[in-house]
Specification:
The protein is α+β, with helices and mostly antiparallel strands. Helices cover 36% and strands 15% of the residues. Helix 15 runs antiparallel to helix 16 (461-477). 48% of the residues are buried. Belongs to the metallo-beta-lactamase superfamily. Type III sulfatase family.
Length: 643
């Protein structure tokens, strides 16, 4: 638990609001893994060191944000009928009571099954103490498609009665799969840098991420919504007794996202569209570029729709903002400042872009409005001005800055070899880098040392040690939590080697995917050059019990391997034993669970022979073996700071 000092500058009421409403502290700080009982997946006391004064190894402003994100973990009362569990993961779980009943709805469910379960148990203990019984969970809402908001879903499904409504914005599954499965390995590897997963939690290591402290490391799940929010306005079909007004915000913080207003409680949930930090236009772990212009428009729409009706605004991260003030409506101020900030970033980037500035030049030149620049709720603790304007540039102009010299660059290794040769060789470059380091020109020292390491010089031990020191100093000075973690993780891996990404997703998560997405988990891992040598393969899969929320049962899917690529499309279901088309190499009749086991096993390099399942086949089963033999597993610890 971090105890916050009352004499710290609190012009935005941050320290007051972050601690307000605690009703049930988390008693045991440790949450353990379901799969490895002795492994701690969350420790709520890990950041107790932040109670101390900020040391020289951290930026003072980021240290302050870390303190705010590390207040006592537990259940917080937001307003009548609304609670939040904070401090059990990177994100929050929110709970809204249905008036006049013993029912609740849950909004978001954390990153892992273990932390999600602990969060709802904490609420239920409080509910039981107040009403003499546990609450009935009647619905789970996903505000958006990022893993820290849906991956604990299985814990809620296990606690709820049969018939749980799982409600998410239109496009939720498609985008959840795109971000967390298609590019999941690369994002997971880069997330190690973004969240500092390999770093110790102490004043010289990881002190948070600006958006929260860290991501829990338990088991991730994915449970598909059985109701989609497809339009703005009153939720239809609704939750009996609880009015909910929806505002869809696709293309802002997430490609599928929704804000939720509860008129009976005058409470507005802003999902992750308004938190107490500047957010990312493009995340450094990798993700599609977000639309800063749309983001600003949605915030303006939120103010118009709900601003004067809202007593408290809460989000999927950080602490709420209450409107009560003698001087101003703090809710409207909170939302309008963020609206203006994203709009200014967008418009000023476009102005400079159209004046011929490149992304790097814009990042160096842009000036933010003085009256907003120091506001802590939009300060760059998570998203930075520097990398956000580059994301805006990328959205409109792509990766190319227009200069022919950057159109066809050498590979990093080839460029480094030429670079070091031109500067007189290893010793000369190392000496120059050390001189720039001594002059505190850390950015150019890092550039030189990076070239030296990628040049493949035989003796790079000294260069790696020097670059580790440079990255450490850059990290210690960074106000942005992500930048700090990236620099310090770079230093860590130069000393210790790559830290492997870990996939802790439950196999059952694949049950939430449609057939297109399910077969894509193999398609993206087929080794194209190896597949050149194979002649075409065609297979029909006939599934007799597809879940209604994925597709009407039964369903058929045609898979084709040709020209080194695996593609497919839906076909009409044909019952066994007669194939749909006699020209198809193989037809397979099976149930959904078996299909998921067969495809899921192949995607992780553990193929299951169709002959060893309950599937009925017609044709040559070696057709499937041909496809699975071409699966190439990704490198979970690919190099980043070394070639």
């Amino acid at each position: 638990m971090v105890t916050l000092s009352s004499n710290v500058n609190d012009e935005n009421h941050d320290f007051e609001f972050a601690q307000r409403g605690l009703v049930a502290p988390l008693k045991d700080p440790y949450i353990f893994s379901d799969s490895k009982p002795h492994k701690v997946v969350w420790n709520s006391q890990a950041y107790d060191f932040l109670q101390e004064d900020c040391p020289k190894t951290a930026n003072t402003s980021l240290w302050r944000q870390g303190q705010l994100c590390s207040v006592e973990a537990g259940l917080y009362h937001v307003t009548e009928g609304v609670y939040q569990v904070r401090g059990l993961d990177l994100a929050n779980m929110s709970i809204v009571q249905v008036p006049g009943t013993n029912k609740i709805v849950i909004i978001d469910c954390l990153t892992s099954v273990e932390t999600g379960r602990k969060a709802i148990e904490l609420y239920q203990e409080h509910h039981n103490s107040q009403f003499g019984q546990e609450a009935e969970i009647c619905a789970l809402f996903y505000t958006h498609c990022h893993v820290d908001h849906f991956a604990g879903a299985q814990s809620i499904a296990n606690k709820a009665q049969e018939g749980l409504r799982i409600i998410g914005p239109d496009g939720f599954i498609e985008h959840a799969v795109s971000e967390n499965i298609y590019a999941g390995v690369a994002m997971a590897r880069r997330s190690i840098y973004q969240y500092g997963e390999a770093l110790s939690k102490d004043p010289r290591g990881q002190i948070g991420s600006g958006l929260g402290q860290a991501v829990s490391t338990g088991i991730s799940s994915l449970v598909a919504p059985n109701q989609r929010i497809v339009s703005d306005g009153v939720l239809e079909p609704g939750i009996e007794g609880l009015e909910i007004i929806c505002q869809l915000t696709p293309g802002a913080e997430a490609p599928a996202e929704v804000n939720l207003f509860f008129p009976q409680y005058s409470a507005l949930c802003m999902a992750e569209n308004a938190t107490h930090t500047l957010h990312n236009i493009q995340t450094l772990r990798g993700a599609p570029v977000r639309d800063a212009r749309l983001w600003s428009r949605y915030l303006d729409e939120s103010i118009t729709l709900f601003g004067d009706k809202t007593d408290v605004v809460f989000s999927s991260h950080h602490w709420p903002t209450w409107k009560s003030s003698d001087e101003e409506n703090l809710v409207i101020t909170f939302l309008s400042e963020q609206r203006d900030y994203y709009a200014y970033l967008h418009n000023e980037t476009l102005r400079l872009l159209n004046d011929g500035r490149t992304p790097v030049e814009i990042a160096e030149e842009i000036k933010m409005p003085p009256n907003l620049a120091l506001r802590t709720n939009i300060r760059g603790y998570y998203g930075s001005i520097s990398h956000n304007v580059k994301g805006i540039y990328d959205k409109y102009m792509g990766w190319f800055n227009g200069n022919p010299a950057y159109l066809w660059p050498l590979s990093p290794v080839d460029e480094a070899i030429q670079f070091v040769e031109c500067m007189g060789g290893y010793e000369s470059v190392l000496k120059k880098a050390q001189e720039y380091h001594a002059k505190n020109n850390l950015r150019f020292a890092a550039t030189l040392l990076d070239k030296l390491i990628f040049s493949g010089a035989e003796n790079i031990k000294a260069a790696k040690a020097e670059l580790a020191l440079v990255y450490q100093e850059l990290g210690f000075g960074a106000e942005n939590g992500i930048w700090r973690n990236i620099y310090l993780t770079g230093a860590y891996e130069l000393k210790n080697g790559p830290h492997a990404a870990i996939n802790t997703r439950t196999p059952a998560s694949l049950m939430a995917l449609g057939l297109d997405q399910l077969f894509d988990t193999i398609a993206i891992r087929v080794n194209g050059p190896r597949a050149f040598l194979e002649q075409g393969v065609t297979i029909d899969f006939m599934v007799d019990d597809m879940p209604q929320n994925l597709k009407k049962s039964p369903a058929g899917w045609h898979v084709r391997l040709s020209n080194g690529v695996l593609t497919g499309h839906g076909v009409e279901y044909t019952p066994s034993p007669k194939p749909r088309d006699s020209n198809i190499d193989l037809t397979v009749w099976l149930n959904h669970e078996t299909l998921v086991a067969v495809v899921g096993g192949a995607a992780i390099g553990k193929p299951i022979s169709l002959d060893k399942t309950t599937a009925i086949t017609s044709g040559n089963t070696r057709a499937w073996d041909t496809i699975t033999s071409l699966v190439s597993l990704p490198n979970l610890s690919f190099n980043i700071v070394t070639p």
